[in-house]
């Protein structure tokens, strides 16, 4: 039996992602051990912390590379080669654009 591919509504997905991301700081603060475990799985490099001072405010910017592969059970293939329409499918581009507007 062949599987089917669900149709993606890129705007709905981007809106849903944006709403979920707004809750991340609160969730991380309430569930510290689980957040640490999740970040250890997602981040696959050293975490670079850079202090900044802008408009009278100080803080840190964090930078690292990551992977979703460790979130899936062993044997599940993660697409490292991009989509059939180039490096990134149009749906992923829309989702990335929505996420970049949040930062």
Question: What is the share of helical residues?
Answer: 40-55%
Compute the number of helices: 4
Shape: globular
Query: What number is the mean pLDDT?
Result: 75
The number of strands is 2
Describe the protein in words.
With 103 residues, the protein is of the alpha+beta class. 43% of the residues lie in helices and 14% in strands. It has four helices and two strands; from the N terminus they run αααββα. Strands 1-2 form a two-stranded antiparallel ribbon. Helix 1 runs parallel beside helix 4 and helix 2 crosses helix 3. The longest helix is centred in the first third of the chain and has 13 residues. The protein is globular.
Question: What's the quick description here?
Answer:
The chain is of the alpha+beta class.
Highlighted features:
103 residues, alpha+beta, two-stranded antiparallel sheet, 4 helices, 2 strands, 43% helix, globular
Summarize the SSE layout with pairings.
Elements: H1 10-22, H2 24-30, H3 32-42, E1 48-54, E2 57-63, H4 90-102
Antiparallel strand pairs: 1-2
Helix pairs in contact: 1-4, 2-3
């Amino acid at each position: 039996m062949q599987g089917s591919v669900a149709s993606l509504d890129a705007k709905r997905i981007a809106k849903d992602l944006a709403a979920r991301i707004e809750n991340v700081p609160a969730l991380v603060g309430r569930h510290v051990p689980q957040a640490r475990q999740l970040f250890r799985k997602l981040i696959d490099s050293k975490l670079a912390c850079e202090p900044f001072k802008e408009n009278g405010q100080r803080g840190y910017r964090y930078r690292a590379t990551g992977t979703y592969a460790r979130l899936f059970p062993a044997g599940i293939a993660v697409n490292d080669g991009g989509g059939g329409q180039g490096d990134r499918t149009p749906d992923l581009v829309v989702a990335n654009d929505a996420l970049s507007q949040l930062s």
